[in-house]
């Protein structure tokens, strides 16, 4: 019988990852598929692993070819595909269990030609996080839309987060070119041709990155690779004329991503490579809309203008400046026009470029004010952080801050030391916020000489801020989408005030608004909600409740929503008619709960302090960090059946998935483990991650409000729930 779905999987030299990729496909809840694996000339054991997998699952079959690149490999797979729908996956990535079921159901309901969904980036070091390039195109569900109505779709370069109707694919005769960056031209052309597209906000693809991060590799900066990147960009620029609505977005995207990548190659290029690189870069820069390029930041504008001028030596200096981490360069007053500020980037007055290009526009002399520490005292919410006007060095900077709610603004007292500040928001001031207020934020005004700038205070690295009750309302600091530190005012909302394990049940106690007529508690997950009985004791404004969750009802090892961490986050919500309300964790202070066989149920909290439950594999977990001088001690509960023979800080080699471990002293007793490290032993690396043999140690989310903090020469931070020691 012909399958409904064909999944084409090209791969080459991914022996370490191919088994996990294929397993994520085999576990799909939509099982009516064939997977066509295309071995594109692998030199390692990838082909053998794929062949073994095909022998175990008849839905998988393997074809081989000499190495020709991902485009021809995909074309070869498409030629063998028989399904009504067509999808793609790369051999080192993962597909969530419900992904194809969600997309097939969407196309069946809307009759669109394409379903496309959100994506996550992942690796052991950084955990799982939102893919930046898919954040805005797939922020919301948008059934039956198109690229003209939703122009941000034109920034979705990838082919693997989509499902295509095969009749649509064949009608337009799509074919991948034999080059790198081959998927963007095909994806964009398909978006332009489609009558409607279904946008899905749920993550339907997990995109792997190197453990060492998105560092620049020699392969990425080779001339032939860059030539393919430019050729792909030229195809995009030829196509985007069909969608004027997306013109500015695409030109800006190519200027900020692809053109910058070409310039980066100048940092290590040999002298005889400079001229060909200049010509290659000018092929792209000459096609970009000058109006769009004129609006990019000054440094990127200099890279563009240096290409246009053919100044290879300046391009090399700019590239090396960026490769050094793009260190901040202070601005200086123009010698003849003191009301102007010039950036001191490479090339000022000793290159072919006019000095006016180095003039900093007003927008770049912006307020940069971030929080580094947040603390509730008996009298106030205390915020500490740093504030500066970008590019200006002024130890005498004047800092003013105000609490803003609607049109109402109240001045705050600020003390400063250098670039550091402390401000206190009295509880009495928070108590006087109007009853209609849902949030407030902190405005910042900075003055340096004649320069005055206004902006807002951002949350910085403070990710899991603690909230507190003020005059009967809960005040919760959170990060807003526009980068502000917002103080959300919550009243008359469900709260969890206690949680404990009683035998095989999790008992949640709390309060719910008395106005709710028939509330039910549900734990939401992709495999289906878990219904939880709710006992209620009436009050005047808030009712007390008790909810007992059978822990075994939460265990579902075969249906994890997250294919990398092998876990599911269940989101508790109170349903009352059309209302669905999250539960605020006001009285819960500890997260790890109960092992159940080889799985564990944990209480977690979101950055906005809403309660979640997580079900996942039983692994080493940290719930306490202590820093004393130049020593750091991390500890956590000991679970039966879990190996505690090696827990250490690890750093990864550049452009590699191989790491180096630092020495630490491990202590394990019947109840807890601890790893004690002398930070001097880690001085040879810039970024260390806590590992338990093969995986990064997950941290209890309730300990995260104390981070970041200083640890000897490092800053101790959490990235997606994983501990990092980073040099500033």
TrEMBL record:
Q: Give the Glycosyltransferase 2-like domain ranges.
A: 6-130
Its Gene Ontology molecular function terms? Answer: hexosyltransferase activity
Write down the superkingdom of origin: Bacteria
Which InterPro entries does UniProt cross-reference here?
A: Glyco_trans_2-like (IPR001173), Nucleotide-diphossugar_trans (IPR029044)
Name of this chain's protein: Glycosyltransferase 2-like domain-containing protein
Q: Which organism is it from?
A: Paractinoplanes toevensis
């Amino acid at each position: 019988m012909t399958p409904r779905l064909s999944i084409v999987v090209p791969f080459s030299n991914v022996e370490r990852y191919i088994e996990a990729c294929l397993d994520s496909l085999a576990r799909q809840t939509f099982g009516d598929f064939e997977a066509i694996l295309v071995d594109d000339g692998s030199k390692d054991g990838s082909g053998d692993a794929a062949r073994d997998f095909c022998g175990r699952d008849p839905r998988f079959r393997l074809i081989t070819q000499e190495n020709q690149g991902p485009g021809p490999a995909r074309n070869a797979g498409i030629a063998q595909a028989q399904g009504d729908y067509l999808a793609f996956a790369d051999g080192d990535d993962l597909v969530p269990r419900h992904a194809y079921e969600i997309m097939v159901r969407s196309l069946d309901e809307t009759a669109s030609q394409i379903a496309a969904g959100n994506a996550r980036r992942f690796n052991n070091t950084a955990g799982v996080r939102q893919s930046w390039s898919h954040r805005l195109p797939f922020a919301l569900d948008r059934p039956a839309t198109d690229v003209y109505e939703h122009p941000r779709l034109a920034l979705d370069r990838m082919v693997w987060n989509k499902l295509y109707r095969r009749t649509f694919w064949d009608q337009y005769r799509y074919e991948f070119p034999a080059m790198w960056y081959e998927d963007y031209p095909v994806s964009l052309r398909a978006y332009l041709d489609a009558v409607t597209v279904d946008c899905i906000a749920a993550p339907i693809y997990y995109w792997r990155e190197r453990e060492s991060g998105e560092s620049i590799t020699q392969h990425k900066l080779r001339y032939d690779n860059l030539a393919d990147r430019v050729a792909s960009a030229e195809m995009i620029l030829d196509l985007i004329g069909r969608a004027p609505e997306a013109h500015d977005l695409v030109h800006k995207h190519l200027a900020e991503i692809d053109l910058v990548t070409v310039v980066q190659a100048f940092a290590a290029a040999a002298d005889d490579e400079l001229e060909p690189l200049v010509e290659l870069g000018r092929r792209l820069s000459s096609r970009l809309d000058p109006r769009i390029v004129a609006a990019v930041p000054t440094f990127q504008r200099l890279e563009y203008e240096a290409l246009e001028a053919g100044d290879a030596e300046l391009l090399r200096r700019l590239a090396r400046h960026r490769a050094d981490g793009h260190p901040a360069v202070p601005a200086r007053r123009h010698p003849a026009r003191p009301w102007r500020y010039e950036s001191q980037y490479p090339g000022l007055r000793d290159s072919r470029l006019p000095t006016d290009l180095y003039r900093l526009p007003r927008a770049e002399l912006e307020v940069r004010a971030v929080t580094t520490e947040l603390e509730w005292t008996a009298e106030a919410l205390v915020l500490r952080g740093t504030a500066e006007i970008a590019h200006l060095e002024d130890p005498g900077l004047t800092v003013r801050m105000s609490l803003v709610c609607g049109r109402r603004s109240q001045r705050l007292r600020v003390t400063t030391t250098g670039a550091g500040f402390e401000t206190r928001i009295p509880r009495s001031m928070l108590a006087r916020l109007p009853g209609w207020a849902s949030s407030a934020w902190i405005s910042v005004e900075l003055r340096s000489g004649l320069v005055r700038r206004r902006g807002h205070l951002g949350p910085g690295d403070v990710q899991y801020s603690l909230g507190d009750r003020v005059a009967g309302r809960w005040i919760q600091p959170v990060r807003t989408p526009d980068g502000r530190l917002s103080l959300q005012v919550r009243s008359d909302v469900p709260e969890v005030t206690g949680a404990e394990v009683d035998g095989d049940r999790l008992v949640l106690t709390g309060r719910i608004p008395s106005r709710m007529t028939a509330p039910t508690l549900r734990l939401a997950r992709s495999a289906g909600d878990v219904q939880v009985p709710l006992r209620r004791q009436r009050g005047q404004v808030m009712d007390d409740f008790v909810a007992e969750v059978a822990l075994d009802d939460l265990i579902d090892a075969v249906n994890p929503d997250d294919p990398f961490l092998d876990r599911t986050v269940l989101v508790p919500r109170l349903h009352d008619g059309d209302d669905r309300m999250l539960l605020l964790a006001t009285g819960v202070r500890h997260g790890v709960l109960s092992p159940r066989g080889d799985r564990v149920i944990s209480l977690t909290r979101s950055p906005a302090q809403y309660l979640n439950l997580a079900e996942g594999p039983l692994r080493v977990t940290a719930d306490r960090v202590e820093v004393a001088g130049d020593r750091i001690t991390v500890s956590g509960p000991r679970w039966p059946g879990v190996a505690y023979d090696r827990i250490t800080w690890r750093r990864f080699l550049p452009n590699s998935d191989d790491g180096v471990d630092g020495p630490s002293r491990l202590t394990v007793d019947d109840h807890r483990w601890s790893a004690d490290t002398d930070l001097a032993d880690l001085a040879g690396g810039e970024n260390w991650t806590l590992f338990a043999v093969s995986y990064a140690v997950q941290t209890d989310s309730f300990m995260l409000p104390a981070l970041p903090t200083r640890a000897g020469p490092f800053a101790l931070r959490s990235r997606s729930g994983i501990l990092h020691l980073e040099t500033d």
